TrEMBL record:
This is Aminotransferase class V domain-containing protein. One of its GO terms (cellular component) is cytoplasm. PANTHER family: KYNURENINASE. SUPFAM superfamilies: PLP-dependent transferases (SSF53383). One of its GO terms (molecular function) is pyridoxal phosphate binding. Residues 12-266 form the Aminotransferase class V domain. GO terms for biological process: anthranilate metabolic process; L-tryptophan catabolic process to kynurenine; NAD+ biosynthetic process. Keywords: Hydrolase, Pyridine nucleotide biosynthesis, Pyridoxal phosphate.
Amino acid sequence: MNLHSLLATLYRPTANKKIIVATTLDFSSDLYAIQSWAQHYGTELRLISSRDGYTLTDEDIEAAFQDDVALIVLPTVLYASGQLLNIERYAKLAQEKEIILGLDAAHSIGSVPHDFHNWGVDFAVWCSYKYLNAGPGACGGIFVHEKHFHRIPALKGWWGHQKNTVFKMNSHFTHEPGASAYQISTPSILALAGLEGSLQEFKKVNIKNIRTHSLQLTAYLMELIDEYLPEFQIVTPRAEECRGGHVSIRHVHARLFSLALRHRNIVPDFRPPDILRMAPLPLYNPNLELD
């Protein structure tokens, strides 16, 4: 819903700039939303392809920043492989080309430091049930750059109305300042409680320290895989600057390994046809739990 709302507001195709760009490795729900707005306006969606089926190259991504492109949506971290993209680099290019840049930060928020505002990112969306530890069904989050604060959301909702007058039941929509304007309806109090508890813990630590520990954990996990599971192929980039917070391995029987691990109370994530994802949580997982 958040991505739909932001695309409805910020995607404004013109005769000369109307193309939307995404990647073939995006999470499917992102692509469904993007396809919806390309179809709504009768415009083209271009997809950046992967050379190996798991990762993207800077060369291929930068080649997509063409003069006829109006908006690009990229993941901060690829959900299947765990590759971390150089968002600061692409944000600079987007500004040079006058392209709106949106991000899906679901697989990095809570494990990777971000500086969306200073990078000039136009908007970002994410969920809070992964590294933010808010639990299943937790509410998502958004970032909207202040240069867009003057815009009235295209999809107006009750909870995006100015809070001090919302119960006056005015017929005219007066939006809240900032990203709050994009709230649609009353949020689940139970879902917010889970997120509030998690964020209280995050306030006690520095995200840079979390990132350092995350890199240590994933590096150690890959060392263990190399030593004890040589038949598995690690598809996550080894370089720290290209690695998010999870490790993905490839094996023809990945699904069976996933079931076997669950039987031992270890919960990985299987992605067809042959990917097994594992994410040691830097907020509370020590190296000992990987042994």
